[in-house]
Write a structure and sequence with these properties.
alpha+beta; Phosphorylase Kinase, domain 1; Aminoglycoside 3'-phosphotransferase, Chain: A, domain 2; five-stranded antiparallel beta sheet; three-stranded antiparallel beta sheet; globular; AGP_Transferase
């Protein structure tokens, strides 16, 4: 199995048919459990996620998803279509009931399913249509403020792809809303 190029926190490898993600660092068992639960419950939803095969100790084994990593598409000048797809897919994520995906009781009305590390850095896209083929790395999923993932996606662009900042309107237009700057910053400060 070869190590995948965009796995920064964990040891993530693929043989072309399967992907094995081994959790590392503090709270690894809890993060692995959160991601296993999210992938299991999102398997038949409108949000595309990798198919979970099994969960050996300290790891997840998933089917490989054919697609191009969002950061690779941005690097070749396709930030606009990638951000549009990010906005559309985030709306789909937020339409799901967090209690259904994560368990527990439903929260207040404005609480949604939050990915926790949402952006092109954790998404795979069709290389031709630029539609989302998978949202990956659900280990930080939780119920929370709908602006968290939107603000985090924006932060990823501002910090890691400054050449694409002028394409951020694509994200907000596709999402259907651009909360004011103070609200986006407040949501990021509360990121868990």
């Amino acid at each position: 199995m070869r190590q995948l190029p965009h796995g920064y926190t964990h040891d993530t490898r693929s043989d072309g048919a399967t992907v094995v993600k081994r959790y590392q660092g503090p709270s690894a068992p809890g993060r692995g459990s959160t991601e296993r639960l999210a992938l299991s419950r999102l398997a038949n939803s409108v949000v595309p996620v990798p198919h979970l095969i099994d969960a050996p100790a300290g790891a997840l084994r998933m089917r490989h998803v054919a697609g191009v990593h969002g950061q690779d598409l941005i690097a070749i000048g396709l930030a606009g279509p990638v951000l549009r797809s990010c906005g559309q897919t985030l709306r789909q994520v937020q339409m799901l009931e967090p209690a259904t995906v994560l368990g527990g009781m439903p929260g207040p009305a404005r609480v949604v399913l939050v990915h926790g590390d949402y952006g092109p850095n954790n998404m795979l896209f069709d290389p031709i249509t630029h539609t989302t083929v998978a949202v990956i790395d659900w280990e930080w999923a939780h119920a929370g403020d709908p602006v968290k993932d939107l603000g985090w996606c924006e932060w990823i662009i501002r910090m890691h792809h400054p050449e694409a900042v002028d394409q951020l309107p694509e994200l907000f237009d596709a999402y259907g809303e651009r909360p004011d700057w103070a609200r986006r910053q407040d949501a990021l400060r509360g990121r868990s």
